[in-house]
Amino acid sequence: MARSSGGYACTECGWQxxxxxxxxxxxxxxxxxxxxxxxxxxxxxTTRSAAPRAGREARPITELGADAVAHRPxxxxxxxxxxxxxxxxxxxxxxxxEPGVGKSTLLLDAAARAAAxxxxxxxxxxxxxxxxxxxxxxxTGALHDxxxxxxxxxxxTVLGHxxxxxxxxxxxxxxxxxxxxxxxxxxxGPAQVREVAAALIRVAKERGIPVVLVGHVTxxxxxxxxxxxxxxxDVVCHFEGDxxxxxxxxxxxxxxxxxxxxxxxxxxxxxxxxxxxxxxxLFLSRSAEPVSGTCATIAMEGRRALPVEVQALVAKSATPxxxxxxxxxxSARVSMILAVLERRAGARLHDQDVYVSTVGGVRLSExxxxxxxxxxxxxxxRDLPLPHDLAAIGEISLAxxxxxxxxxxxxAAEARRLGYAQLVDAGAGTLERAREIALGTLSRQxxx
Length: 448
Known about the structure:
Elements: E1 5-10, E2 16-17, E3 33-37, H1 77-83, E4 92-97, H2 103-116, E5 121-125, H3 130-140, E6 147-151, H4 155-165, E7 169-173, H5 190-207, E8 211-215, H6 228-232, E9 235-241, E10 247-255, E11 263-269, E12 272-275, E13 294-301, E14 304-316, E15 324-327, H7 331-344, E16 352-358, H8 370-382, E17 390-392, E18 395-396, E19 402-403, H9 408-417, E20 422-424, H10 431-447
Parallel strand pairs: 4-8, 4-9, 5-6, 5-7, 7-8, 15-16, 17-20
Antiparallel strand pairs: 1-2, 1-3, 9-10, 10-11, 11-12, 13-14, 14-16, 18-19
């Protein structure tokens, strides 16, 4: 008897179709639509009515107490900041990121800290052997007697380890490597990912054990597998960073227990991942004397204000078409700022090569950095360095006006805390006035 088919689904985004197609109708990827077998009878829906279990009866909302969600700190301050104070018992957390960014290292450190705090932790990996995990734990100092390792790819075996260990925290690395014999198809398929995630989340909710699921990402950076996976979990965290730098950022895309606009900063080293509670020094140069073509700004990453230094270099072009090279900033916005500088501020840039970059590999995508970019370019054109204690915050319009930005008060407070005594912002009114304030400050200091 032929196997009954449950239709076809995309292995990248989970889009379903009644028949096979060569291209996914949702993510437009070619060759990702595969047949999905129908689940067995044990997973089929039933129409029989069943009495609710004791203590699970439906009750009026007015009779239910509004108990506060208790967060348990992980011992890693930056991770607790992103999670809203720590891990909530029974929470399901999805941890995604590109290969090699440091997801496993960070979670192994968090698991070891939880074990050192008196808990029992189960770390189940389907990608590495226990010996490989042990070697990384020795290198990063994540060894503890109540941290249990298991190298398994079978869901039933992992559930058996949970029954034996009775952990207070479960880490599964990764959800795409586990498979259940109750569902046809290989590990990582949409049906398998749904079944594995649903089973682990059900255990977390019934027993009050927090579970952390590591998820693979696709080529565009989204979580691999069906979109249902992100709906099932309580928290979705994304770990990102540039492989050319040691800096890593942790962001929350979804959080039922806290804010989603927080960001955690970490630094990758040979000894593992260490948190960076105050990353202000990572994005600023350390030259003793002011250098022309540099200007500091205050960027907002979630609710955290970070000082970032913008550097610009202007040189005579040897080609008919001058070069515009950017790193860490939007090239289209830099081109617009250069046009405003030439039209409104009298800067001669049409025959000059312009290079604009940020320090530390951070990326600026908000308009609040417009004024800092403009002042850095003007400083490079005139070869006049700006003072070390000057920061610029503001958006530049096509009319040459300096407009206020979101979070201006918080940015200004952070600038004062970091020692920036002079702040050029929307109070200058126009770009011409901002230039006079910024470039005239050094001249007054020299005369004095």
